Amino acid sequence: MGSTLCEHCTAVCCRYLALPLDDPAKARDYDDMRWYLMHEGVTVFVEDGDWYIQYQARCKNLGADSLCRIYDIRPKTCREYGPGSCDYAGGSYGYDHLFTHPKQIEEYYHQKTGKKLDTLTEPGPPRRPRPPKKKKSA
């Protein structure tokens, strides 16, 4: 009997997570993406017109042998991940755009609008301040 891809799996899909982003509408949105890309292990991509942020982050339940240590109780997202989505079989992900460096967002914005992103004067929405840290009682 021949081998299956699962026998050779390196669990690529368990080494990152990708979350949807709102489509950028303002210069501030692109500037925020530029900031995301200033962090290690972060990429931004567009697939089928939808924007995503991707973090390189290894699942805590992935064993050294690339097998899931909680396979029988794994989350529904993992259960729904089928061979048709397999990253091992990989190849092209079909990205419309892949951004791995802040300069790429700047260039994309410039191509789209004719404006430079680094000379913005447009104020962005107010950012919510972090809540104050609670003081430890003695």
Work out the helicity level.
10-25%
The average pLDDT value, as a whole number, equals 83
Secondary-structure-derived class: alpha+beta
Q: N-to-C SSE series?
A: EHEEHEH
The unreliable regions are none
Percent range for β-strand residues: 15-25%
Q: Count of helices? A: 3
| Largest pleated sheet | 4 strands, antiparallel
Number of strands: 4
Shape field: globular
Key phrases:
138 residues, alpha+beta, 4-stranded antiparallel sheet
List the helices and strands and how they pair.
Elements: E1 16-21, H1 27-36, E2 42-47, E3 50-56, H2 76-80, E4 97-99, H3 102-113
Antiparallel strand pairs: 1-3, 2-3, 2-4
Helix pairs in contact: 1-3
Summarize the structure.
With 138 residues, the protein is of the alpha+beta class. Helix content is 20%, strand content 16%. Helix 1 packs antiparallel against helix 3 (102-113).
